[in-house]
Design a protein that fits this description.
With 160 residues, this protein is mainly α. It has 5 helices and no strands.
């Protein structure tokens, strides 16, 4: 790890860097999934969904940058190459043959929900480790992902 004067122990920083890199891989994958939906959606809701998926992409890339910068602030290396992300992501695989708006909404909804669940677990992990700043970062991301998931679920408008 690189030198930092952040007053967290090396073990705490190492553990947080690991958590943050896992979420970084997921966030980069999620951003790609948002663009996949944006580029390939077809149907009567095309323009609304095309723009919505682009908004999700913008939101998620903001999270990508925050995660990567926290990793480097803690003295770690942000692991964001395509090769690393492909091996490390925990998100469901995105079906590249989807074209319908509903299909993209369901696929993105599954990935948003999975990512949100992992981020919420990491809030507790970071808090227990004594890294309030990383917990706060995860909390902000969780809140934003929940909002995006709400938009997806509102489009699907189906009771589960």
């Amino acid at each position: 790890m690189a030198f930092t004067r952040i007053d967290l122990g090396a073990n705490v920083r190492k553990n947080m860097i690991g958590l943050l890199n896992q979420r970084l891989a997921d966030a980069i994958d999620l951003a790609g999934q948002c663009k996949q939906a944006h580029w390939n959606v077809k149907g009567p809701q095309f323009i609304a969904l095309h723009e919505l998926f682009d908004t999700f992409y913008t939101n998620v890339t903001g999270h990508v940058d925050e995660l990567a910068e926290r990793i480097t602030a803690l003295g770690g290396t942000a692991r964001g190459t395509t090769q690393t992300v492909a091996k490390a992501t925990s998100l469901p695989e995105y079906d590249e043959e989807i074209t319908s708006g509903e299909g993209h909404l369901k696929a993105l909804g599954a990935s948003l929900a999975s990512f949100g669940k992992s981020v919420r677990a990491n809030i507790d992990d970071a808090d227990k480790a004594g890294d309030k700043d990383t917990a706060d970062l995860f909390t902000g991301i969780s809140r934003a992902i929940d909002k995006d998931l709400w938009f997806v679920d509102a489009h699907l408008d189906k009771a589960k």
